[in-house]
Design a protein that fits this description.
Belongs to the complex I subunit 1 family. Pfam families: NADHdh (PF00146). This protein is mostly helical and 346 residues long. It has a domain at 66-98 and 114-265 and 298-344. The protein has helices at 2-38, 54-64, 75-91, 119-140, 144-175, 180-185, 194-197, 199-212, 224-227, 237-262, 278-304, 312-344; strands at 102-104, 107-109. A two-stranded antiparallel sheet has the order 1-2. Helix 8 packs antiparallel against helix 12 (312-344). It is globular.
Amino acid sequence: MELAFVIEKFALVIVIFMISLGVAAYSTLAERKIAAFLQGRVGPHRAGWGGMFQPLADGAKMFFKEEIIPTQSNQFLFIAGPSLALLTALIGSAVIPWGQSLTFGDTVVQLQVADINVGILYIFGVVSLGVYGIMIGGWASNNKFSLMGAIRAASQNISYEIAMGLSIIALLMVTQSLSLKEIAAQQSGFINWNVWAQPLGFLIFIICAFAECNRTPFDLPESENELVGGYHTEYSGMKLGGFLFAEYINMFISSAVMATLYFGGYNFPFMNDLGLPQNIITLIGVLFLFAKIFFFIFFFMWVRWTVPRFRYDQLMNLGWKVLIPLGIANIVLTGIWIIVKDTYFK
């Protein structure tokens, strides 16, 4: 039984790993296509039908590109930086419930790698570790622009993690659980989605997600017109690819977390009234979860090509003077709402 359990989890890890890499690869094509659409262009269209093979061409280019390591850099940390960034981006998917269970005879397969009762704390731990890859890569490059990008990334992540944590505290007051599986299970039914109970908390969370993923308008650590390329200025080949893949995987995992915490996760309207076999309902739920994820990925890309980059002082002011006070106010309002509901609407 233990061997079967290990094989099941190993297979699930491989599937999620391949899906994460595939989504990250084709997010690059989607980004360029969306940018082209918004700007009245065609976008990539030569590598395959409609540019479908463009991510494969880009990957091959990076794989065969010359690897350059600056002579004055710390070579071990220079290589470790993108590796750590990619690793921390991937391990965040371990606690996300991708769907309900699948049943094959006497075997029940849970579509979640690890159902730990502190799943949200695990996500926050992974998010806080993610900046170390950027910091190490920026410092090890021995380049002033890279170092400035690393410092910006560190201060930005610290600032916005606080506001994100405050938004989650209010959500925990409503759900009474740290387990992502239990939070998703509580949201069966459209009216039970947490976004209706925590609209301000969701707004704070998604803004902080933009900052944590270094996405425009919060891409100050790598702003090309100021820092050449920021923390990955000195990188080329697959080391640069590691940083780029980490950014798109972070966007994918952040979208999955938002869908799970606020938009019902794998739940969809009338799922309990269809009368279909459980396995079919589970697979439909997985498709609905990925539809929500792809919507958020599109939103990330849409914002990138419509909103200009903030100045650094604006970035810090938004984090410390706007989002943190709003997060505290949201906690107070949530507490009042819970007291009133328990007192008058039992």
